[in-house]
Amino acid sequence: MDSFLPSPDCDTISKTYNGQIDSHLIQKTNEGYREILPNLPRGKGWMTEHLVQYQGVWLTPNFALKGLMWVQDHFKPRSTDIFLATFPKTGTTWLKALTFATVNRTRYGFADHPLLTTVPHGCLPFLEACPNDLDGFPSPRLLSTHIPYTLLPNSMTVNQSCRFVYICRDPKDVLVSKWLFMNKLRPKELAPISLEEAFELFCQGISHYGPYWDHVLGYWKASLETPEKVLFLKYEELKEEPSVVVKRLGEFLGHPFSLEEVSKGVVEEIVKLCSFENLSNLEVNKSSVLKLSTQIIIDNRHFFRKGKVGDGKSYLTDEMIKRINEITSEKLLGSGLVFGS
Ligand code: A3P
């Protein structure tokens, strides 16, 4: 097994759309894209000027929309594929680190682990950013995606036994984390988004891959229907009992921890390696960048802010908290899923 992948130079997506790889298929996706784009509903963007609504989900008009269309049209899943599915700012970076460390724990020592020198996003590529490159990757492939479950092609959800690990988080913390993150990436020529504006947009569902609640419910329902295929996690539970969750993760991914590993403290080593304190203080995560496309280059340090449960509430007014809690209760009613207050 060889799951460690070098940092994906994901300007592949731009190479893809510039037609250097598989030009016929790219042309087809590009034609479809150009045809639909002008007619899509538009909303205010957080990082880009606009978001567009496609098949019920809000996406950046270039990167995310093209990525989704490409995946729907041409991605070839394998039954051994493992996808980490997340809504942005719910714990993607942490889940990537934990999964990578769990699956590859016999390959790397903790003293010279790839996660000490590579941002977690560089260890585990983003499906929508470089779908073409993935054909050459050895199985089992560890990939991440922000695509809502309901928009994934049947080839990924029905026809194949691909596994998904999903992590969700209290919407108040997601909103605030996203607002702060997106403003950092927002081009200087666009005025920053105020918290009030971000709050309104988030509540209306207008944020990358939103509405948030629909995203969560899609994976929640899939996890109830096919628990062997979809593992549903909460950021808050991971914070509270990381070792318990890592053991569940190992079990689900077909890499259960043996009694010997448990007694030797391997689970705790993984938790420590992937902790906020450890990762956020590494030189690579303080000073290097992640290149998602030729236009999207993100400082690794932006992926690590506070890593706390409940921090969102310290930014929001009582009224905002009340409203978002009401929306959450209403949306999740009858689903069996709950978040804290
Ligand atoms: P905050 O902004 O609330 O601090 P994503 O990885 O999906 O972009 O989510 C980012 C959020 O996860 C940020 O939340 C970030 O600080 C937090 N985070 C990143 N790495 C983490 C880790 N190892 N442990 C816990 N939280 C982490």
CATH topology: the name is Rossmann fold
Mean of pLDDT: 91
Approximately how much beta-strand content do the residues carry?
5-15%
* Second CATH tier, the architecture: 3-Layer(aba) Sandwich
Helix content: 40-55%
Cα radius of gyration in angstroms: 19 Å
Number of helical stretches of at least 4 residues: 16
The CATH homologous superfamily is named P-loop containing nucleotide triphosphate hydrolases
- In angstroms, what separates the terminal alpha carbons? 43 Å
Let me know the number of strands. 9
Total tally of structural domains: 1
The ligands bound in this entry are: adenosine-3'-5'-diphosphate
Output the strand order for the largest sheet.
Answer: 5-4-6-7
Q: Name the helix and strand elements from N-terminus to C-terminus, one letter apiece.
A: HHEEEHEHHEHEHHHEHHHHHHEEH
InterPro entries: P-loop_NTPase, Sulfotransferase_dom
Keywords: Transferase
Family: Belongs to the sulfotransferase 1 family.
EC number: 2.8.2.-
